[in-house]
Design a protein that fits this description.
By secondary structure, the protein is mainly α. It has a single domain, classed as Orthogonal Bundle (Chromosomal Replication Initiator Protein Dnaa, Chain: A). It has six helices and no strands. It has helices spanning 3-25, 29-33, 40-56, 61-68, 72-85, 89-104. It is globular and about 40 Å long. 32% of the residues are buried.
Length: 114
C-alpha cells in the first residue's frame, strides 16, 4: 500500500475505532478525535480507541499515533493503561466485546469503487 493510501486507511481505522469507543463509553466521537486532551472521560475513550486500533486492527504504535495525531509514546501509554485494566474480569469482557466488534467490521475494499 502506498503512503497516501496507507495514511487514508489508518485515518479510517482511527475513525472506526473511535466510533466503537464512542458507542461503548457514550462519549462523542468528536471529543475522542479532538487534538486537545479534553475531559477525563474523553481522554479515557481516546485511550480505548487507540488500544482497539493497535490490538483489534493490528496497527503499529507509530501508525496509530499518526492516525490520532499523537506521539508514539502516548499510544504506548494508552495501550498499557487499558491492558492493565484487563485484569478486572468485567472490564476484560467489555473491552473484548469492543475488540470483537472491530474485528467483525469488513476491511476497506477500494477496488469496489464505492
Amino acid at each position: 500500500m502506498e503512503g497516501t493510501s496507507l495514511r487514508s486507511a489508518d485515518l479510517a481505522a482511527a475513525q472506526l475505532a473511535a466510533s466503537i469507543a464512542s458507542y461503548g463509553l457514550a462519549v462523542p466521537k468528536t471529543e475522542i478525535l479532538d487534538a486537545r486532551r479534553g475531559s477525563a472521560r474523553a481522554a479515557f475513550a481516546r485511550q480505548v480507541a487507540m488500544y482497539l486500533c493497535h490490538t483489534g486492527l493490528e496497527l503499529s504504535l507509530a501508525r496509530v499515533a499518526n492516525a490520532f495525531g499523537r506521539d508514539r509514546s502516548t499510544v504506548a501509554h494508552a495501550c498499557h493503561a487499558v491492558e492493565d485494566r484487563r485484569e478486572q474480569p468485567h472490564f476484560d469482557f467489555w473491552i473484548g466485546a469492543l475488540e470483537a466488534m472491530l474485528r467483525c467490521a469488513p476491511g476497506p475494499k477500494p477496488e469496489l469503487g464505492l
